[in-house]
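Budget justification, computational time. The allocation requested in the original proposal was used primarily to generate C-alpha cells for proteins on the priority list. As evidence of use, we reproduce two of the resulting records. The first is shown immediately below.
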Amino acid sequence: PRAALTPPPAMGIKNITYGEGCDVVKDPLTIAIWASVLLAARWVLHQVFTRSWAKRMLGLSTKGKLSPAESLLTEKFCKYFWHAIVYLGLFVWGLSILSKEAWSPFKTGSLDSVWVDYPHNSSEKPVLKAFVMAQVAWYAHGFIESLIVDKFRNDFVVMLVHHVMSAILLLGSFWGNAHRVAIVVCVEQDLSDILMYISKMFEKAVAVPWTQNNTLRSYLLVQLTVAWWSTRVFVLGTLVFKCFVILGPSGLFTIGGPGAHYLSIFLIGQLGLLWVMQVMWALGLLKMTVDQLRKGTFSDFFHDSKKNEKKLESKSQ
C-alpha cells in the first residue's frame, strides 16, 4: 500500500517587532511634504506645458473657453501624462532595488522568497524606506487628485477606496516587517499603470491621426490586457496564495490561536481585497479588448461616464 503523506511541519513565526526603522513623527511629516510636492509639481507642469499640449492633442481650442466636458477631458489627458511619467520613475526605481536584493524573485526565480522567513529582517528596510514612503505619498496625492479629476468616473468610489487601501497596505507592511511584499506588489502594479496611461493618451489624441489607427489601438489594448492579467491577476494572486501556503501552517492567520498576528491577518485580508478589485478591472479590460478586436471600437466604461458628463453639461447651461 502507498505510504500516507505527512504534512510538512509548521515553520513557526518569529516574534514580530512592530515599527522597526520607523519614526512615528518624522515619517508622516515626510510623506505629507512629499505628497504636497507632488501636487505642486503636477500643478506647475500642467500650467507650463501639459494643459496646452493636451488641448492640441485633443483637437480643442488653445485660446477659447472650453465647455465643462472639454475641460474635464483636458484634465483627464493631463492626468494620463502625469501618471505615466511618475509611474515610469517609480517602476525603474523599484526595479533597480529588486535587481540588487538577494531575496528578490529576480534573484531566486520564485515568489516564495517574498514570504519565506517572515517577518523579515529589519536590516533590509533602509534601502526600501524611501521607495515605500514615496509610494504612500503618491497615493495620498492620488486621493486628492481623484477628488478633482475623477469624480465623474463610474468607479470613482472604488478608486478612492483603492488609494486608501494601497497606502494602508504599504504603511502596515513596512511597520510589521513585511516590506518585501510591499515593494514587489508596487513594481508589478506600476508596470501595467504605465501601459494603461500611455494607451489612454493614444486613445484620446484624436488630433494626431496615426494614433487613431485601429491596428495600433488593438495592439495597445491587447498589450495592456496581457500585462494586467499577468501582473495584477496572476502575480498578485500567486502572492496571496503563496502567503497562505507558506505561512498558514504556522497558525499566523488562525484567529484566536496562540500564533495569530492580527496585523498580519488584516494586511493579507486587504491584499486579497486588492486582488479582487484588480480582477474586476481585468474583466472590464478584457471586455474592452474583445469589443475592439471584434467591432473596431470599445467603450471605456470605467474612466468615461457619458451619463455623468451629460449632467455636467446640463448644469452649465
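The second record produced under the same allocation is shown here.
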Amino acid sequence: PKINLPTAEHSFLDLNAIKYFYSMLMEHDLLQRFSDAVGALKTTFDSDSLIHPLISVDDLRFLYILSCNEAFNDPTHMETFIKVLEMVHRTPDENKKFFINWFKEFNADQMGAIVIALQSYCTIKIFQNAENDLRYGVGFLDLVAKANSHTRVIHYSEFYNDAVNTEVDLKEDFLHWYHYLRRRAEDPESAKGDALCFCFFPWILNTESKSYMLQSQSRVSMNHNFREAIVQSLTSGTGLYDSPYLVLSIRRDHLIEDTLNGLSRSGLNYKKPLRVKFIGEQGVDEGGVQKELFLLLLRQIFNPEYAMFKYNEQTRLFYFNGDTFESNMKFELLGMLMGLAIYNSIMLDVHFPKAVYKKLLKVEPTFQDLKEFDPELHSGLKKLLEYPGDVEGDLCYSFQVTREVFGEFKLED
C-alpha cells in the first residue's frame, strides 16, 4: 500500500489509532515506561538541540504523537507533559506551523481533550508561580488556538482560562506588555527573553478582561498623546497652540454634518482624549456631553426614516439597508463614532446581529446567521432547501421576490 509521508499541511496520521495505542498503554499499566522514554528523549534533546535542533518532519511528527496522549489529563503525569511541552516550545518558530496545520485535523472531541489538558496544566502552573513551565503550556495552547481559529470545531470560549482572568494581575500584565513593545521598538535585542505576557495571547482572556485591557491601552495612549501635544506646543517656537484634546464643536441642528466635518479635518489625532462642545451652550465636557452627542447621533442615524439601516421589529436588530441613498461617508462616520466610543470608554446602545461583527473580523457569515436577524425569512428558506420535490413545479415558486423600496415595488431574481 502507498505510504503518505507527512508534510507541512498534513500529518497523514490515524488519530484514532494513536488514541487506541495510548489506551493500550494505560490498560496494561505501561505509562511509566512511556514516561521513562520521554525522559530519555528529553535528555538527548537537551544535549543535542543546540547542535541538531528538531527540524526534520519526523522529529516534529513524533512530538505531535506524544502530545496526543490523553493521559496528560491526569496530574500524575505532569512532569512528562512538561518535557513534551518544553521540547515543542524550543522547536524553531518556522516549524511550529506544522503543529498548527496538524492540529486542524482534530475533531471536536480531540480538540476538546487537548485543550482541557492544557488548561489544567496552565492553571496549576499559575498557582505554583512557575513562569517557565507556564510559558511552555501557553505557547503550546497558542498553536492549538490558532488551529481552532480555522476549523472552529470547539467554541472560542473553551480557550478562556479562569485562573488567568481572576488570579493574574492584569494591570501589571498590561504594563509589562506595553513597556516590552516600546523596548522592542527601540532595541529588539534588549527585549529578548522577557517575561510572559498574556496580552500576547488574547484568546485566553474573556470578554471582561479584554475590555479592561482595551480601556487600559486607551488610557495609556491618551496620556501619551496628551503630554506630547503639550510638549509640542511649548517647544515648537511657532506660537501656535496644539490642543491636547480632540475637540468637536457641534451645532444641535446640524449634528451629523458638523460631526462629519469635525472628524474629517486633516492631520487630526484621534488618539487624543475627546471633548465635545455644543455651540452657544455653556458647560465643560466631563463626559456627560460626549455621551449626549453619541446618543443623539445614533438616534438620528438609526432612525428608520433616515433609511441607512433596516430594522426588524421581531428581533429588534438593525442591518445595513442596501437601497439607501446615503453616501458611504455616513457609514464611515458611524464606524468612526464606534471607534471613538470604544477608545473613550463610552457605552453605545447599538443592536447589530453577529453577522455584522463577523464581517468586521473578515469571517464569512453563514445561513444560520440569518436566523438571528430574520428568523421568519430563515425558516421559509430552510423549508425550501429541505423540500424533497420540485420547488418551482410543485409550489409555483419562480425564485423571484418583490420588494418595496421607498414606495416602489421591485421584482428581483
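A brief technical remark on that second record: The CA atoms of residues 403 and 410 lie 5 Å apart.
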